[in-house]
Amino acid sequence: MAELVPRIRPEYVDLIRSFIAHAVEESGRRGAVLGLSGGVDSAVVAKLCADAIGPKRVLAIALPEGEGGRDLEDARAWALDLGVGFRATDIKPFVNAFERGLGASKASRTTRGNLRARARMVVLYYVANAEDRVVMGTGNKSELLCSYFTKFGDGAADFLPIGDLYKTQVREMARLLGIPSRILRKPPTAGLWRGQTDEEELGIRYDELDRILLGLELQLDPQAIAEKAGVPLGQVTRVEALVTSGVHKRKTPLIPKLGARTIGLDWRE
């Protein structure tokens, strides 16, 4: 049996709620907005935000491309259960306009998928600016470490409440919070194109991925991680390479050192 298994503690829920309440209060904004996809990550963040600052101060926006289908139905139903504000904005007209203007019909699937992620974030930040809100991101630690997010798309946010929870920990927290099973059972997807799933694109199941990432977090050597996580050594080295190659996506843009203190280097805030 694998020895490396990320777990959560019950107090994590209260810690994140306190974080959200403090973040919104310190920002001076009147509330929060988040993208509600119908998946487990955004469902958890919506619940935590509603608990932390009250549902009346939370706005959830579904951002389908086209009709939305079951995901849109699940997002709307969960927002109704929580009592938070809810809107649905179809990003298809925006995406089509960008693709026409850029001549993107021959662009790669990944390039066009990233465009969709960035279109969604444009909507969220427009609403945040117009309605005096902060944007609550829904990215988890597994995605952040593997750079499995679109820079300035779903990776953009003012705060990341579940950013220190691995995907398997988010699922565990979702059960504690009473997230509906119809949401919990869905294959995770970033919604970049029809039929896209996280695990297929990553080439590894989240339960295996998270055990490897925990080993890297604990600074174990690759062979020890493979043994304790119960995975092939090749998987460990592949995930380690993913983490290393995506450092630039987790940092502010690099600035050459010229002054006494430089943003992103030695100007600590």
Features:
alpha/beta, Rossmann fold, 4 strands, 12 helices, 4-stranded parallel β-sheet
Oligomer: single chain
Name the average pLDDT.
Answer: 93
SS-derived structural category: alpha/beta
Which CATH architecture? 3-Layer(aba) Sandwich
Overall geometry: globular
Continuous helix count? 12
Q: What does the main sheet amount to?
A: 4 strands, parallel
Query: CATH superfamily name?
Result: HUPs
Brief synopsis:
This protein has one domain: HUPs (Rossmann fold), CATH 3.40.50.620.
Structure, explained:
The protein is globular. Helix 10 packs across helix 12. The chain has a four-stranded parallel sheet with strand order 3-2-1-4, with helices on both faces. It has helices at 11-27, 40-53, 69-82, 92-102, 109-131, 141-145, 167-177, 181-184, 198-202, 206-217, 222-229, 233-245; strands at residues 31-35, 58-62, 85-88, 133-135. It has one domain (11-203): Rossmann fold. Helices cover 51% and strands 6% of the residues. With 269 residues, the chain is an alpha/beta fold. The termini are far apart. Strand 2 (58-62), helix 3 and strand 3 (85-88) form a beta-alpha-beta unit. It is built from twelve helices and four strands.
How do the helices and strands line up, and which of them pair or pack?
Layout: H1 11-27, E1 31-35, H2 40-53, E2 58-62, H3 69-82, E3 85-88, H4 92-102, H5 109-131, E4 133-135, H6 141-145, H7 167-177, H8 181-184, H9 198-202, H10 206-217, H11 222-229, H12 233-245
Parallel strand pairs: 1-2, 1-4, 2-3
